[in-house]
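Attaching the record inline, Q. Sequence:
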Amino acid sequence: MLGYVLAYRPLTLDGSLVTSAGRRFFFTAGPNDTVLRGGDWVHFEPLPGAATPDAHHSGTSTFARIIARADHVASLCVSSGDAAALLAALAGESLLERPA
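Structure, as predicted:
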């Protein structure tokens, strides 16, 4: 799966990411993993139990394992419209609701 790193804390090696569908995941990087920062695109896989339907609506924490940074992939496959929709979803608003 492809996700966008919302936040990453290098001292604790933990962070959060979101998918284009608005699902949010938390992760803990290993000490030898690629250095991440907020704004990075990453390939990840949900950990067992993270795929529970509607877990993201119930406030349940879902966790993921980062596979690799995907900055070069994201620039090729994520359109600017999708990126704008993702940012609007993070802000809790629809692009259709946004005043002109």
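Confidence is low (pLDDT under 50) at residues 52-58, 93-100. The longest strand covers residues 2-9.

More tomorrow.
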